[in-house]
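Reply to dn_fold:

You asked what the input looked like. This is it:
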Amino acid sequence: MFTLGFIINPFAGIGGKVGLKGSDGEAIRTEAFARGAKAQAVQRAKVALEALVPYKEQLQILTASGDMGESLLNQMGFQFKVVHHGQEPSTSEDTIKAAKVMAGLSEEPYNIDVLLFAGGDGTARNIFEAVDAAVPVLGIPAGVKIHSGVYAVTPHAAGLVIEKMINKELVSLLETSVMDIDEDAFRKGVVRAKQYGEMQVPAEHRYVQATKSGGRELEELVLQDIADFIIENMEDDAYYLVGSGSTCAFLMDCMGLENTLLGIDCVHQGKVIASDMAESDILQLLTQHQKQVKLVITVIGGQGHIIGRGNQQLSAKVLSQLDKDDIYIIATKTKLQELEGKPLIVDSDDTELNQRLSGVIRVITGYEDFILYPVGLTS
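and this is what came back:
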């Protein structure tokens, strides 16, 4: 019998679509819900568990009460045991206590094969505080901040890794980093990432993400070529949504425009007409100017994500209204080479949309210099 620990941080990711860039702390959660945010971690956890439905009879699942796992498992028909009854609403302390119990680090003699949890970097820190390297862990990406190497590339990929373990297929066990950043500084456009430690992760090359590359891109001549090409080809009647990341920031700097390093800005006729846009702002723009909206995004170094990491404002609702040809991906060839052949990844909450955007996509890598690069699925 395969024993699985299962924990959901139900608040993970609620700040993403409303532009808050995190969900740590009660005040931020209150603000996120006031802006119309909806919880998404449970749904992303459900996607991971769907891969395990055929193995219900082979699974013994330990979980926490309510939205931390019990409700979803009950809804999906899994057999489980609640080993921690948390507060309502749950807190980070509940995550820590539940993980300790499941890992056999409290008075209860439990012995899980792996701890599967849904959250972001803050949740990964809580899990690390609880179990350190005592048991293997695997994260279902559901937060705004996903810098840690303990996460699968998508929720579905997390389920596939567990499936391999249940079937006793060979899966490497690696020590990967637990990273987190200062959210207050993050909201001001400053990334202060810190490594808190390492945990053991069942790793499969296609399914578990690399830790984000921390070095600053020094290929300024190449970045200048990319920026020059984009700027020269901007259409006067178009509205350009410019995404997060240093490559997009370089483009904005070349236009002499202020940018939100970790958010989405809209450029029209050489001016910023909206800064740090939430999902609702982008949807309103699409309602008014859908045919003229273009998207400029880059690749997360070392991971390959183009959607679903730090840009949840670009939701499935947003992307479904854009043609694939209106999505411009900019990246240096060096950044793509760092992926070591792994595909680019779209990790929206809509499986059909992920499928539509998969295949081969054009990446702008210089001035009139392009390569065709695969956008892959993790199944």
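The chain has two domains: 2-203, 220-376.
Hope that clears it up.
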